[in-house]
Specification:
CATH architecture of the largest domain: Alpha-Beta Complex
Strand order of the largest sheet: 1-2-4-3
Largest sheet: 4 strands, antiparallel
CATH superfamily of the largest domain: Aspartate Aminotransferase, domain 1
Number of domains: 2
Structural class: alpha+beta
Oligomer: single chain
CATH class of the largest domain: Alpha Beta
Number of strands: 4
Distance between the termini: 46 Å
Strand content: 5-15%
CATH topology of the largest domain: Aspartate Aminotransferase, domain 1
Number of helices: 5
Order of helices and strands: HHHEEHEEH
Helix content: 40-55%
Shape: globular
Amino acid sequence: LYTSQSLRDKLHLTMAGPGMMRQRYDYLDHSWNPFDDGRCFEYSTIPWDHVAAFTVIAEDLFNRYAIESIREEVFRLQDLFLQKLDRELFEIQYFELKNRSGIISISPKRNTALLLKALSKENIVVTERGGYVRLAPHFYLDDNQLMRAAETFNRLGGH
C-alpha cells in the first residue's frame, strides 16, 4: 500500500501467499490474481514467537522422521477418512495430484454453519472457508480416530 508504482515496477515477486491475492482466503481459487499495489508483496504475516517455536518443533520432528514419510502417512489417513465419508452427504473437492496437500476440503449438503457447530461439540476441529469445510488429518493420528471422525461427519451431515 505504501510503495510507489515506480518502485513496484523494479521489484519481482519471489513468494506467493493469501495476503497478496485479491481472492484472499478463498483457498480453492488457485488463480494468479495479485493486488496491483503494495499488497502484492504481503505474503502473510507470522508472529516471530510462532516462527521460533515452529523452528524448534520442526528441527526435532524432521530429525526423527523423513518428510516423505510424514506426507505419505497424512495422505493415507486422508484416504481412509474419505473412503468412510458418505458421498451422498458431502461433495469432496479434489485437486490434481501435484496440488494435493495436507488439507481436505469438502462441501456439506446441509448448512455448513450448523455442521461446524455440531462438529465442535464433538471436539472435531475444522475450519470453514467460502462455504466448504477444511480439515487436516495429522500424521500422529491413528486409523481409529479418522474412522470415528468420518462416522461423526456422516451422522451429523444427515441432519
